[in-house]
């Protein structure tokens, strides 16, 4: 639904009614309520209609015209459809604040729901559904039941949506009066739009209840597939979203669904395309035909690419969805990476998403093209985009082993530009590459050390210090390089201090000479006596104890072989990915969060269910634990032992700083 303000929508609506309707919004008269009251009670139909327009215009610009409620309600008794719509609009706005007066309109609603004109019948039911007043809800049931069986499909489709609104107000009435069964019957309706609205209503009701309200069986499935080709685009979205929740019985059933849904991929509406992709992805998991799956992946690529020729906002939504899709089926767009190359006039949010997808689609086959693009992006003016482009080069190096050297060469070229933030980001990235490929690319360390003086960001400093400490035995002046950082040890951020502490210990263990010994004494003293951060202080104590008791053990701990890293930090958990793929085309697929994380109504339902399950589990655990625990004294023994151990550790006086490094 459009996010256009109500005032503008109404102004546009007035403009569409012909004549000089804009004048109703430009009045500056004061004390006009009495004048409007007289006009509303006029016998002249033209004056009465103009008066209602004035009332709606005043209501739209924020004036309180609730005092005219009885007079406006009296205008409902008219054959003029335009006037009736305006009165109904007024009622929807003020019925909640005037519930007692709103009852006056009930008889007219009931009468209008039996009008020979189907537009008036539908309008009456729709308006009664929108007026969220309990007293009126009671009178809505009989007209709604009749309209659900109306001979005109327009009335039936309007009534179907009204059932969902009524369920939101009073679920008990909907269940007791058999509205759910009537909705299910509408799925077999001859009119496809009635089917689509019935599906939409049942789906919405299902989201707000824990009961099994809407279940697609074999008979229902083929009714939905038959209606799919004939209903409007939004009707198709409702039906496709319902089909996406259907679990196919076997591969043949899945293939049948895919065959009927595949033509929707060529639709002009983006929502229809994404819903079609969602259904096909779900059924591909059931199909065990690799050739057919390959053909479907090939068929889904072009429609997704076409979405990127739309407005930037739609591009962004499409890119967020594509990001999820290629995590599950990367072959869909494996040959279309050029489509995601950034254009000079793309908004930054589109560029960022394209960059993420390019990283996912990068392979040994296209890495040269991708690196040229990334190198170009690293010269852009937007600093955040440049940083992400440099990071992207590093992520490609980590993911593609054969192309790591090419990635490093590009990073070295970027370092030569001497642009401060580019250099610092490149150093952070190279640290990760060293973690991924230890002892392979150390020759570039000299180039990195040339830029030591330009580092001013904590992350870049920490990365450079890590490199110096890790390769201290290969860097001739490693102690001098660390000294430049140690001079400002107390002023540095915690991230840098932690790396400095560890790097200094590594330097001492690799070169146990007098220079590193003095440095480690100074750092340990400062970290344990002059710094309040518990993480840093505790790490310093651990290193101190290790060095003083068993230097060999210290080597085994500090210089231990590190596990190689992988670029999986940006990948979603498989269960989360499946849940988000089931919500393609919704806000969940844009936020990359499950619906319950940001939809309050869903969150409450999920929380209640979780609390109920948690309470049951706690009761079971209490029963089991009461049978297993032998006695309180036996259970307390391990706790006492742990306490003693901690006491011994903290009670022992620490050795003097010089002792750990005295010759044996």
From TrEMBL:
Identify the main location: membrane
* Clathrin/coatomer adaptor adaptin-like N-terminal domain sequence ranges: 30-550
Compositionally biased tracts (Acidic residues): 613-625
Region of interest (Disordered), residue spans: 612-638
Output the GO biological process annotations, alphabetical, semicolon-separated.
intracellular protein transport; vesicle-mediated transport
Q: Does the keyword Protein transport apply?
A: yes
Q: Which UniProt keywords apply?
A: Membrane, Protein transport, Transport
Protein localization: Endomembrane system
Of the GO CC terms on this record, one is: membrane coat
The cross-references to Pfam families, in alphabetical order and at most eight, read:
Adaptin_N
**Is the Cell membrane keyword given for this protein?**
no
GO molecular function terms noted in the UniProt entry: clathrin binding
Q: Which domain of life is it from?
A: Eukaryota
Report biased composition (Low complexity) as residue ranges: 626-638
Instruction: Please report which protein family the annotation says this sequence is part of.
Output: Belongs to the adaptor complexes large subunit family.
Q: What is the protein named?
A: Clathrin/coatomer adaptor adaptin-like N-terminal domain-containing protein
Q: What species is given as this protein's source?
A: Pyramimonas obovata
């Amino acid at each position: 639904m459009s996010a256009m303000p109500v005032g503008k929508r109404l102004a546009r609506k007035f403009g569409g009614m012909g004549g000089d309707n804009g004048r109703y919004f430009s009045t500056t008269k004061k004390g006009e309520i009495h004048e409007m009251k007289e006009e509303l009670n006029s016998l002249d139909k033209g004056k009465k209609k103009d008066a209602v327009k004035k009332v709606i215009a005043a209501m739209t610009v924020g004036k309180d015209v609730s005092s005219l409620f009885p007079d406006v309600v009296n205008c409902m008794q008219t054959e003029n459809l335009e006037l009736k719509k305006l009165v109904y609009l007024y009622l929807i706005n003020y019925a909640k604040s005037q519930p007692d007066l709103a009852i006056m309109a009930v008889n007219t609603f009931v009468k209008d729901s039996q009008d020979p004109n189907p537009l008036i019948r539908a309008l009456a039911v729709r308006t009664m559904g929108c007026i969220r007043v309990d007293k009126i809800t009671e009178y809505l049931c009989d007209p709604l039941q009749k309209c659900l069986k109306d001979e005109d499909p327009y009335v039936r489709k309007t009534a179907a949506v009204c059932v969902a609104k009524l369920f939101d107000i009073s679920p008990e009435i909907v269940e007791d009066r058999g509205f759910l069964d009537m909705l299910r019957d509408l799925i077999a309706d001859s009119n496809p739009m009635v089917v689509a609205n019935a599906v939409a209503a049942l789906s919405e009701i299902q989201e707000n209840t824990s009961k099994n309200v809407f279940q697609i069986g074999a008979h229902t499935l083929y009714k939905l597939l038959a209606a799919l080709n004939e209903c409007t685009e939004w009707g198709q979205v409702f039906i496709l979203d319902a089909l996406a929740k259907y679990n196919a019985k076997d591969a043949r059933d899945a293939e049948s669904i895919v065959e009927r849904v595949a033509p929707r991929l060529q639709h002009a509406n983006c929502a229809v395309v994404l819903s079609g992709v969602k259904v096909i992805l779900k059924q591909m998991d059931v199909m065990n035909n690799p050739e057919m799956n390959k053909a479907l992946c090939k068929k889904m690529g072009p429609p997704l690419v076409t979405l990127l020729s739309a407005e930037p906002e739609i591009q962004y939504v499409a890119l967020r969805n594509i990001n999820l899709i290629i995590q599950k089926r990367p072959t869909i767009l494996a040959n279309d990476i050029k489509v995601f190359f950034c254009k000079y006039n793309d908004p930054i949010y589109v560029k960022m998403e394209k960059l993420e997808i390019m990283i996912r689609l990068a392979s040994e086959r296209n890495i040269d093209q991708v690196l040229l693009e990334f190198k170009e992006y690293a010269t852009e003016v937007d600093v955040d985009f440049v940083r992400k482009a440099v990071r992207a080069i590093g992520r490609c190096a980590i993911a593609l082993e054969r192309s790591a050297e090419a990635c490093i060469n590009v990073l070295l070229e970027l370092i030569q530009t001497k642009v401060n933030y580019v250099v610092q980001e490149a150093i952070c990235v190279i640290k990760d590459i060293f973690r991924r490929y230890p002892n392979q690319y150390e020759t570039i360390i000299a180039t990195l050390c040339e830029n030591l003086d330009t580092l001013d960001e904590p992350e870049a400093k920490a990365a450079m210090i890590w490199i110096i400490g890790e390769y201290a035995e290969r860097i001739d002046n490693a102690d001098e390089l660390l000294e430049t950082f140690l001079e400002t040890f107390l002023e540095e951020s915690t991230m840098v201090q932690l790396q400095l502490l560890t790097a200094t210990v590594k330097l001492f263990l690799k070169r146990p000479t007098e220079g590193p010994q003095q440095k480690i004494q100074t750092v340990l003293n400062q970290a344990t006596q002059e710094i309040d951060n518990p993480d840093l202080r505790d790490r310093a104590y651990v290193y101190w104890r290790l060095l003083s008791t068993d230097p060999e053990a210290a080597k085994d701990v500090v210089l231990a072989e590190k596990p190689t890293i992988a670029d999986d930090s940006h990948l979603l958990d498989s269960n989360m990915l499946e849940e988000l793929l089931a919500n393609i085309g919704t806000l969940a697929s844009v936020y990359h969060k499950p619906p319950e994380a940001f939809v309050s109504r869903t969150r409450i339902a999920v929380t209640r269910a979780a609390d109920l399950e948690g309470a049951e589990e706690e009761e079971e655990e209490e029963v089991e634990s009461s049978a297993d625990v032998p006695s309180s004294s036996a259970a307390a023994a391990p706790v006492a032992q742990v306490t003693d151990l901690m006491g011994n550790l903290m009670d022992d006086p620490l050795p003097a700083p010089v002792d750990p490094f005295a010759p044996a």
